[in-house]
């Protein structure tokens, strides 16, 4: 049917040859028709639960819970609308249970079929985004009665919090900052795509695992991208529980749509009303966004803004700027609405203008610019940017035999849905690293590249007072594939996921190197100052100190603090930079909290030697304690347990000479310490090209 309609009225789609035409005529997950990370698998059939419900005199048709915070209390109101089949007098009750078990109640008689329950919460326990506080959840139970008969009951999970999207004129343009409970939030996170090409295979366990990994890596926001579908309750339950704010796109992405056809609009209106009503009470919900990249497509993408498409463009603006905005405001006046991503506010007014709204930064990867281009980009909010990597070798082995472990093999190119993607991986690899011995080393290098690119971008935007958020593309996969994800289809953490735990840390050290020196910074996302010490050493790869220093740190709250600019021009003269790196450590309470190693040339030009990493592994309860020490700098140390999938406390880190690093991981169930010692694998950059390297 979609293909027939498309033949009558073609819609603009992107992604050839990996896309099936006709999808925009159907209200179905756009990515099921093919995307640049997913296969063309338009699943058909009923894919969510069906149940038969029976009622007596009436049922609850709609609930609208709202909060008003003032004078240290929260006033809750719950609008109740009933669907009724008798003239019996109806009453509604609200029972609110606090996290500690204390309950409060309210009751009203409905006026016909509607009414509003009201209740004040004294000394409320506030809900906070991950990293800023706890996530206490109340349980609101609303019941409908006729006399003593219980007719219907609904239960809502509620977090008490205020939220606004602050857009105010300032010295750079207009801010775009989420504010929760009066505290500015620097949004840190990733974009979410459907977790499987077949949605019925995704259960609460998968949501908890993936979103739990995001929270563990200090993410505080997830963007539900507009090319998928509105997620299950289990997804939003997990976000409520974990403190992950949700940027929620409506399901329109990268295509034109027949938004001037009334049957299509009637269908979409029901879709919008049902999903807004379903989600508006949730603490995690932060923003309703009209679509993904369509406004920008009309302005910037070739072949869109033509006389032949004038009707589609006019219908687009009427719908996303007016119709959809009106529907959302009527159903949920408390959450902000944003017309598109990226956008500067709509009406085709310079979408992607860095001084207003949000941007998508794709000059790196799609346009093949170097990672350093991120540092030239100033923005209020970066809601997409990314770089591809190959999945881990056990994942590669799930779809490719060893004879196909070549980036240009048929299978490898089939599991790469971005045209020229594998070529880009090779080009960027050659710019940063020596070409590797084998395919497994190439897969490892691609992940290290991805980590380094995202680190450079995030650290830059966290340093910039103009910026209020970064959401990299993307958190997860829907099948085993080379993609922009930080966690692969089977839930295995790539290097980027480990790296995000470092560069998204609430207090994070960053170094901005130049040809002959470095600027030192500490970003502090907490609402209170942070005190510590930064210790730096310019040293040889073998660990000989050339210069060193200590800097007291008083990191201002909710800001990045510039500490010092170091000049190493004399130390790095001539060929000396090939044998020198800057090692910085952030100390607090007698403990090294974070370490960074910064070279002044591409890693391929460092005079790396065999690091000769000494490893000691011992059991501590149900955990493994792994201690490592290197005789020479080991870059991007990767740990793995062959035959087991575990998450390490740190991974893909730099290990400077003569320093101990301790890492923990779970002891796999049923394993002995001898098995763990035999299965532990340690790799670093040198092993990908050095003599005897794997």
From TrEMBL:
Subunit annotation: Homodimer.
Reaction equations catalysed: Hydrolysis of terminal, non-reducing beta-D-mannose residues in beta-D-mannosides
GO cellular component: extracellular region
Similarity annotation: Belongs to the glycosyl hydrolase 2 family. Beta-mannosidase B subfamily.
Protein name (Swiss-Prot/TrEMBL): Beta-mannosidase B
Beta-mannosidase-like galactose-binding domain segment(s): 23-48
Assigned keywords, A-Z: Glycoprotein, Glycosidase, Hydrolase, Secreted
SUPFAM superfamilies: (Trans)glycosidases (SSF51445), beta-Galactosidase/glucuronidase domain (SSF49303), Galactose-binding domain-like (SSF49785)
Gene3D superfamilies reported in the protein's UniProt record: Galactose-binding domain-like, Glycosidases, Immunoglobulins
Localization in the cell: Secreted
Domain Beta-mannosidase Ig-fold, chain residue ranges per copy: 608-688
Domain Glycoside hydrolase family 2 immunoglobulin-like beta-sandwich: 58-161
GO MF: beta-mannosidase activity
Mannosidase Ig/CBM-like domain ranges (all copies): 520-605
PANTHER family to which the protein is assigned, alphabetical: BETA-MANNOSIDASE (PTHR43730)
Biological-process GO terms, alphabetical: carbohydrate metabolic process; glycoprotein catabolic process
EC number assigned by the record: 3.2.1.25
Top-level taxon of the source organism: Bacteria
Pathway: Glycan metabolism; N-glycan degradation
Pfam families, alphabetized: Glyco_hydro_2, Glyco_hydro_2_N2, Ig_mannosidase, Mannosidase_ig
